[in-house]
Structures are given as structure tokens and as C-alpha cells.
Task: inverse folding
């Protein structure tokens, strides 16, 4: 009962205009995020990673990350090389920095692609309804019935190993999941009056979908995408670890782990360091995703 | 009314707060209620007035982490339920006092047969050992009491309509013949025609098992047809309390809020051009006004209403919490 | 009910066709040259073409697909380009290991994650809940193969308690692989269970049970948990896909001769019959498990069950409702 009383005091949301609502919502979300200690930690880590990615070339020489240097091979972490060197004498610190670029690019890139197509497919399907919706749902159901790993592996088997191929494969597998979730939330939007009024004003379908439907489900897409990024990063690292993704000497965290295998019994830093970066990245993205979801929808807090 | 021994339920100076996100929601702010044996009390108020919170508190079922009963006591047959151990509370719930919830659609567990859900409360409280067959018969008999063929006990909730589900809920509540039946807006979620049926049935059952009833509602019509006495609740306080006659007689003096409630329902006898709803909204329960909680919305409020304690004016069985009681207008003047 | 089960089982067949075709199409998306792979770089182009022709590789894709299906129905999945042995035999020899690893890990995830998840939900905000929730967040973010490497380093290479590779040492060979694969899923299982239980615990019908005076154990297990089970069964199905994938990777870390190791090696070598076989087997296993889950689901939820027991009711509407709520 107290809950319903609480709700009443909130001003009615401005639903007629997608944009205005979004802006005020974003501000509210941001203020909630700022209050969440875990989210601040996660955002700090992600900001650091972002700095690493942007200024990778200034922080560490790319040559040090890929060039062989027999003199420096297998150095423990220390003053000269803070993360040590690998079996080819390459600076692990430099490899980590440049690896962040690849891992994050891959994670965000693949997720962004699947989020974009998933959102467009899902919202369009919900908006069109009827037979179109039925057909799309059927296709998505079948698509979802195939484990995404199967699709990913099949694509890689088909088009070969490498980073762009892997991004494509990972993105492709993620589309149906996005489409389904976004369709569900778009369904609740398309029946509201402001869509009717937009139709009455003669707006085209494309315009309605992009101008009115998508802005109202974007928060859902954003949360879903954030959660997806960490999974994609881990999956990409796994593929590279198996030799199906980034190829040597590319500095990629998963590939570094697999290169470290032959020597890690005596030089454990070869696997601990890339692994820690991988885990911390995934963890912060997960925490951030959780916090983002809570900020968008405080009712879900603590779940 | 004052004699303790007759009272099934006594609520004394009850205060309940909810804590969420650092805010304190004052849901119930010092209410007193008595229900005698066989009496039906109607607790009337808007959504958010603290009615359901009060109902849950009587069975000590408020959510543990968010709700806090900061003051007061609730005596059920002279025993304070707020001080009871969990084990003793379980003996009270469903047997001495039971509750019918507002929404029958969600109040039955979808994965169990309705018969099982009735049997569960019987098994929990039965003193003598009964065989499975006897339980079946008993469940069938109880279902018949609420007007459902006993053979339907093997069906699942989704096979019942809303009104039928509420009958099942009532069957669960009366299965152990409780001395106090709390009905939290039992008909709000139902169609109007079904509402009348369910109310009629409840009236019959009440006679049959001779229990006291606390009927929570926002519908004055329901109160008029069912209750012996009425308490009007606003923002966690009881603003007016009396017998059915005290409250419904337009010749009596009334709290402005009560007047407002009556003003917002259509009247068939006195012809009015338009209804007179109460202006404004319930106050924010995290930030209640000082003095009389109703004064921001009250058409006759004075400076004195804004500050200090509001005395309760008593006239026999009729109590009104309003500073203006001395020079109040009569309704419909 | 039987009708539902049969219908659901029969539905595997068209899905299998679609899945196998998609996989077949995808792995052939760039033209392969199996003759070259089989004969090596030295062989003359004529010989290579001859081999390609014998394998039917000069035929259009769809025709080749139906040839593959026809052979597969006879238990012939072709011969590996490298080992020259029948893929079917190899696959059947390897498949049980993958299944074993998957189910051992699933078992661990359920046995540990489920009760702890319920505990967290029931004691929400308690110290135990905070610790377990935070811990599970960390563990869920840990890549399984990395955990495998760390466990391998500590318990096998350093302490020597468990073998570092292969499956020759009985149960001791399975401890580390199972553990590495299961930890992440146990953590997510805990989180899912907690969240599902928190959902059901707040339902009105759970409050009804409390109001009947039932003990807390009845409230939690008989009512709240029983209703969470529907969500949990769905989640188990979804986890299974992930677990199978994880098994593919863990097999590589611990050199378990399962389907995954075969598939990964085959992809690197472009050994098409082996790729096809391992991916199709993975898909088949997954589809069969999904059917099992669906049938289980129908047994748990009376709304689905009764739909098929009383045939002359409006089925389609309710069906939609139930599916929408999953």
C-alpha cells in the first residue's frame, strides 16, 4: 500500500514526446547511478580501460607488444617490465594494453551490431504485428533453437579464423536474443496512444519505428546490450584461446593465455595477468549492467 | 464496547512505518479499534490510507525488513500478537483469525488444486487425526458452503473464474471457523454482479460460523449493507469512528473528510447537480502535514488545524478527530 | 499429455533439417578444396579434381546437402580428411565424454547453486546473502578455461593431486574439468535461483499460504520454490547450451578426447566431415535436451498439462499467455 502511495507522488511521465522523456529519464538514471557505490567502482574500472584503449599507443609501444626479443624472454614481473615478458620476450604490459583494444572493440562491436539489428527487427516486428510478426517470430524461434556457439563455430568454420570473422560470427549469434526481448518491450509501447496519434498525423512507418518506438525501448536495449558485452568479450577470448579467433602474434587476451600454456608451470604470470584483466573487465561490465538496470527500473533493485 | 472480555480484537495506538531507500513512510499513525464478538466493523478509506497495512499487522504478517511496528499493541482475544513467537502466531493464522485478500486472481497458487489449498489449512490446524478420505469430504463440504460443487476440488485455479476464485479464498479463510475474519477489499477486483453475490454469501457465512468481521473497503455502499460499525481512515489515522447509524445519519455531525466521502458518491434521494469530490490528493506518506493530516484538502480548515494535536470529540459511541467539532455544519444543509 | 509429448518429439525432425542445412551452408560458405587437403600440396591438380569429384564436391550445395542427409541417415557421416577413418565411429566414441562432462557440471551447478540461491532469497539482505551474491558475481565473470588453467597449475602441476590431462585415471580425471566448467554456472544458477525465488516469494499466493499458518518450510519449498521451478527449468535449458559450449573449451584445456576437442581441431584443419559431424551432434543433443525440458515443463505447470488433457477448450489463447510469461 505504501508503494502505491509512493508512486502517486511522481509526476506523470511525458509520454507524448519520446525525446523529452528520454532526456529527463537519462538525468534521473544518471543520478541513481551516482548513488550506487558498486556502479561507481565499475564505471571507474571501465573508464580506465577506455583510457587504455584510446591512448594505447602513447602508453605502450605496439612494437614491444609484437616484436620478438630473445634477450628479454620470460622475465618475471619487475621494475623493467611490470607484468614481465613472455616466451618471445614481448612486453606483457604492452600486450595487455593493446589487447584491451581488441577485446573491447570485439565485445562492444559485436554486441552493438547484434543490438542494432535485434532492436530494429524486434521493434519492427512488434509494430507491424499480424502475419509479418508471426513469420519473424517463427524465424527467430528456429534461430534461437540453435545454440549460438553452434552458429558461431559454423561461421568461423565457413569463413575462416581471424578477428573480423569472429566479430561477425559473434554478432550474428546474438541477434535473435535481442530481437525477442525488444519485441516484447516494444509490444507494450506500440499500443499506446501516442503511436496512434503519430499515425493519425500521417507519419510513415519507418519514422514511427525510429522516432517513437525505439526511443521508448532504448533503455531495455541498453541494459541488455551491456549484459551482452561481457559475455561476448569472454566468448571472444575463449575462441582466441582455442585458436579460432585472433591469431599470433596479435596481442589478444585469450590468445595470450593460450600462448602462455607451454611455460606457465614455471612462469604463472603468463596466464594470471591476462586472465585477471579478462575477469575484471567482464565483472565491471556485469556490475555496471546490473546497476544500469536498477537505475532504469528501481523496482528490480536487489534482484 | 469498553469491556475487554467481549472484545475479539483490540488495537491500541498502533504506529507502523515502512523504510525504503532511507525514506520513512508513515503508513499507520496511532489508530485504536475494537471489534466485539459477532460484530462487523467496516474500515473505510482511500487507497494508501493504511488499511491493508493494518490488516496485515493483525496477523503480524508485515514484510520483515521494510515494515516496522514502532508503537502500540494488537490484542487478539487478549493476547498481543505483536509479541507472539512465530510458532504461536502460526496457530493463530488461519484458525483464530484469517484473512481474505483483495485480488483472487493472484492469491491462489496456480500449481496446486484448489482442494489441496483448502486442505492445507485444515491439516495445519486440525486437532484430531483425520484420514485422507475425511479431509476430502471436509473440503467438499466447505466448498459447498461457499457455493461451489464439492467435486470441483480437483480442479486448478486457472479453471475457475474470478468470482469463483474469491469464493475459494473465502473457503480457505472460513475452513477453520475463525473468530475473526479480516476481509481486505474482498470484492474490489470482482464484477459488480459478482460483488453482490459474494457479499451475500459472506453475510450468510458470518451468521453460520458466528465470527467477527473486519471489512476493509473504500465502498461506503458495501459498508452500509454489511457492517455494524464503521471507522473512517485517512493518512494512517482514524478520523471518525462510530456505529453504522452514527456515521450514516446525515443529522449527525461528521468529520469533513467523511462529508467529502459521502459527497463523492451519487445520492438517489437528495437530488444534486454534480458530485462534490474531495479536492487534492492524499498527502505524501513520507512527509505528512503537521496538525490535522487532512487540513490541506479540508474546505473548512482554520489556522488551528495546522499545528498541534487534534483532540478526539466523543459523543456516546461516536468519535470524531477534528478540532472544529463544536461548530460543525450538518451535512446536506 | 502423450499427444503433447509425441508432438514435441516429432517437431525435432523439421528443426533438425533446418539446423543441419544452416550449418552445412555456413561451413561451406567459402569454397573448400578437400581434394587438396586429402592429397597434400604435392599432388597434381588432376588428381585433386578427381578426388573432389569422387566426394561429390563439384555438385551444387543443395544437392550435396541432400547427399549428406541420405548418407547420414544410414549412419555414414563420411571419412575424416586427415585420419581417413569414418567420422561416425569417432564421433560415437567421443560423444559420451562430452555428455559426461556436461552433466557432471550441470549436476554440480544445480546441487550447489540451487539451495544456496534459495537461501539467499529467503534471507535477503543478510550477511550470507551479501557474501554469496557478491562471490557469485565474481565467479560468474571468470572465464571457465582460465579457471581451468589455474586449477590445473595448482592442483595438478604443483600438488599433483589430479592428472593434468586425459581421462585415464577414473574419477580423478574428472574432478578438475567438472569443477572448472561448473563454477561459473553454479554462480549464475545461484543468481537465477535467487532472483526467481525473490519474485515468487513476493507473490500474493505465498502471502496466502503464510496467512493459513503454514510453517515457513512449507511456504518456501512447497509454494514459492514449486512455482520458481518453472523459471528454473527454463533456465536450466538455457544453461545447457552454455554448458555444452563450455565443455567444448574445457575439453581442450584438459585434453579430454570429447566432441569439442574433435570439433575445434577439425575447424582449424577445415576437415569438413568432422566439423559437420561435431556441430550436428552438438545441435542434436541440444535439441533433444530442449524437448526434455519442454516436456518436464508441461509436467510441472498444470496450466499446460490440463490444456492437453481436456481437449475441447480454447487452447491457443492460454498457450500464448503461458509462453509470454516465460
Result:
Amino acid at each position: 500500500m505504501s508503494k502505491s502511495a509512493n508512486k502517486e507522488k511522481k509526476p506523470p511521465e511525458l509520454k507524448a514526446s519520446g525525446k523529452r522523456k528520454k532526456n529527463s529519464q537519462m538525468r534521473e538514471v544518471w543520478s541513481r547511478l551516482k548513488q550506487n557505490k558498486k556502479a561507481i567502482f565499475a564505471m571507474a574500472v571501465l573508464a580506465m580501460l577506455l583510457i587504455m584503449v584510446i591512448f594505447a599507443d602513447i602508453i605502450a609501444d605496439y612494437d614491444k607488444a609484437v616484436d620478438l626479443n630473445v634477450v628479454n624472454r620470460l622475465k618475471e614481473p619487475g621494475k623493467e617490465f611490470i607484468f614481465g615478458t613472455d616466451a618471445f620476450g614481448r612486453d606483457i604490459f604492452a600486450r595487455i594494453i593493446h589487447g584491451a583494444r581488441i577485446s573491447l572493440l570485439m565485445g562492444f562491436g559485436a554486441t552493438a551490431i547484434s543490438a542494432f539489428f535485434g532492436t530494429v527487427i524486434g521493434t519492427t516486428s512488434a509494430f507491424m504485428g499480424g502475419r509479418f510478426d508471426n513469420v519473424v517470430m517463427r524465424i527467430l524461434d528456429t534461430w534461437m533453437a540453435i545454440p549460438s556457439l553452434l552458429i558461431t563455430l559454423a561461421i568461423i568454420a565457413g569463413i575462416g579464423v581471424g578477428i573480423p570473422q569472429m566479430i561477425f560470427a559473434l554478432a550474428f549469434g546474438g541477434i535473435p536474443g535481442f530481437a525477442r526481448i525488444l519485441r516484447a518491450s516494444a509490444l507494450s509501447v506500440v499500443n499506446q496512444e501516442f503511436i496512434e496519434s503519430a499515425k493519425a498525423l500521417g507519419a510513415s512507418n519507418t519514422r514511427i519505428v525510429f522516432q517513437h518506438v525505439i526511443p521508448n525501448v532504448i533503455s531495455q536495449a541498453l541494459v541488455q546490450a551491456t549484459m551482452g558485452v561481457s559475455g561476448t568479450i569472454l566468448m571472444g577470448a575463449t575462441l582466441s584461446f582455442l585458436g579460432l579467433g585472433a591469431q599470433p602474434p596479435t596481442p589478444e587476451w585469450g590468445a595470450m593465455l593460450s600462448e602462455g600454456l607451454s611455460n606457465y608451470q614455471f612462469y604463472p604470470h603468463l596466464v594470471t595477468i591476462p586472465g585477471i584483466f579478462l575477469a575484471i573487465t567482464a565483472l565491471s561490465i556485469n556490475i555496471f549492467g546490473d546497476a544500469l538496470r536498477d537505475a532504469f527500473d528501481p523496482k528490480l533493485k536487489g534482484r | 464496547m469498553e469491556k475487554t472480555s467481549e472484545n475479539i480484537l483490540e488495537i491500541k495506538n498502533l504506529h507502523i512505518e515502512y523504510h525504503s531507500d532511507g525514506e520513512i513512510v508513515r503508513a499507520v499513525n496511532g489508530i485504536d479499534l475494537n471489534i466485539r464478538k459477532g460484530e462487523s466493523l467496516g474500515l473505510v478509506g482511500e487507497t494508501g490510507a493504511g488499511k491493508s497495512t493494518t490488516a496485515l499487522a493483525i496477523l503480524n504478517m508485515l514484510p520483515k525488513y521494510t515494515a516496522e511496528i514502532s508503537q502500540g499493541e494488537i490484542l487478539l482475544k487478549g493476547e498481543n500478537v505483536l509479541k507472539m513467537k512465530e510458532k504461536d502466531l502460526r496457530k493463530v493464522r488461519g484458525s483464530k483469525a484469517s484473512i481474505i485478500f483483495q485480488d483472487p486472481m493472484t492469491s491462489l497458487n496456480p500449481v496446486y488444486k484448489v482442494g489441496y489449498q483448502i486442505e492445507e489449512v485444515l491439516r495445519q490446524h486440525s486437532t484430531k487425526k483425520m484420514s485422507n478420505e475425511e479431509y476430502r469430504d471436509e473440503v467438499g463440504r466447505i466448498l459447498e458452503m461457499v457455493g461451489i460443487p464439492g467435486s470441483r476440488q480437483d480442479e486448478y485455479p486457472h479453471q475457475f473464474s474470478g468470482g469463483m476464485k474469491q469464493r475459494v479464498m473465502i473457503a480457505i479463510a472460513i475452513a477453520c471457523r475463525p473468530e475473526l475474519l479480516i476481509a481486505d477489499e474482498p470484492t474490489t477486483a470482482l464484477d459488480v454482479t459478482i460483488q453482490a453475490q459474494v457479499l451475500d454469501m459472506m453475510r450468510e457465512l458470518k451468521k453460520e460460523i458466528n465470527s467477527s468481521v473486519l471489512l476493509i473497503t473504500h465502498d461506503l455502499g458495501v459498508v452500509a449493507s454489511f457492517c455494524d460499525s464503521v471507522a473512517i481512515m485517512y493518512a494512517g489515522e482514524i478520523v471518525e469512528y462510530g456505529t453504522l447509524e452514527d456515521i450514516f445519519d446525515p443529522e449527525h455531525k461528521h468529520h469533513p473528510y467523511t462529508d467529502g466521502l459521502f459527497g463523492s458518491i451519487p445520492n438517489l434521494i437528495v437530488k444534486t447537480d454534480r458530485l462534490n469530490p474531495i479536492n487534492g490528493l492524499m498527502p505524501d506518506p513520507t512527509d505528512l502535514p503537521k496538525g490535522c493530516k487532512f487540513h490541506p484538502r479540508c474546505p473548512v480548515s482554520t489556522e488551528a488545524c495546522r499545528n498541534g494535536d487534534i483532540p478526539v470529540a466523543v459523543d456516546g459511541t461516536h468519535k470524531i478527530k477534528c478540532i472544529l467539532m463544536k461548530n460543525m455544519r450538518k451535512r446536506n444543509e | 499429455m502423450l499427444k503433447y509429448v509425441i508432438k514435441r518429439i516429432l517437431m525435432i525432425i523439421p528443426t533438425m533439417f533446418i539446423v543441419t542445412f544452416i550449418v552445412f551452408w555456413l561451413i561451406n560458405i567459402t569454397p573448400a578444396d578437400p581434394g587438396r587437403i586429402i592429397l597434400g600440396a604435392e599432388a597434381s591438380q588432376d588428381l585433386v579434381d578427381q578426388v573432389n569429384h569422387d566426394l561429390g564436391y563439384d555438385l551444387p550445395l543443395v544437392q550435396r546437402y541432400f547427399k549428406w542427409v541420405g548418407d547420414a541417415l544410414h549412419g555414414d557421416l563420411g571419412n575424416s580428411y586427415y585420419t581417413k577413418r569414418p567420422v561416425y565411429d569417432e564421433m560415437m566414441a567421443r560423444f559420451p565424454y562430452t555428455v559426461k562432462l556436461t552433466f557432471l557440471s550441470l549436476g554440480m551447478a544445480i546441487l550447489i547453486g540451487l539451495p544456496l540461491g534459495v537461501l539467499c532469497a529467503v534471507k535477503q539482505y543478510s550477511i550470507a546473502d551479501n557474501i554469496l551474491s557478491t562471490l557469485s558475481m565474481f565467479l560468474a565473470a571468470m572465464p571457465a578455461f582460465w579457471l581451468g588453467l589455474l586449477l590445473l597449475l595448482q592442483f595438478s602441476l604443483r600438488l599433483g593431486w589430479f592428472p593434468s590431462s586425459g581421462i585415464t585415471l577414473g574419477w580423478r580425471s574428472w574432478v578438475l574439468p567438472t569443477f572448472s566448467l561448473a563454477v561459473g554456472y553454479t554462480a549464475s544458477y545461484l543468481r537465477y535461483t535467487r532472483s526467481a525465488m525473490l519474485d515468487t516469494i513476493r507473490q500474493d499466493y505465498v502471502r496466502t499460504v503464510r496467512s493459513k499458518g503454514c510453517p515457513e518450510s512449507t511456504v518456501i519449498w512447497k509454494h514459492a520454490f514449486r512455482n520458481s521451478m518453472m523459471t528454473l527449468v527454463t533456465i536450466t535449458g538455457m544453461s545447457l547450451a552454455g554448458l555444452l559450449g563450455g565443455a567444448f573449451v574445457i575439453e581442450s584445456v584438459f585434453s579430454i578426447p570429447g566432441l569439442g576437442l574433435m570439433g575445434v581441431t577439425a575447424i582449424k584443419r577445415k576437415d569438413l566431415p568432422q566439423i559437420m559431424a561435431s556441430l550436428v551432434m552438438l545441435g542434436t543433443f541440444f535439441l533433444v535436451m530442449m524437448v526434455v525440458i519442454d516436456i518436464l515443463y508441461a509436467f510441472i505447470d498444470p496450466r499446460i498439462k490440463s490444456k492437453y488433457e481436456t481437449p475441447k477448450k480454447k487452447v491457443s489463447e492460454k498457450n500464448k499467455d503461458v509462453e509470454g510469461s516465460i
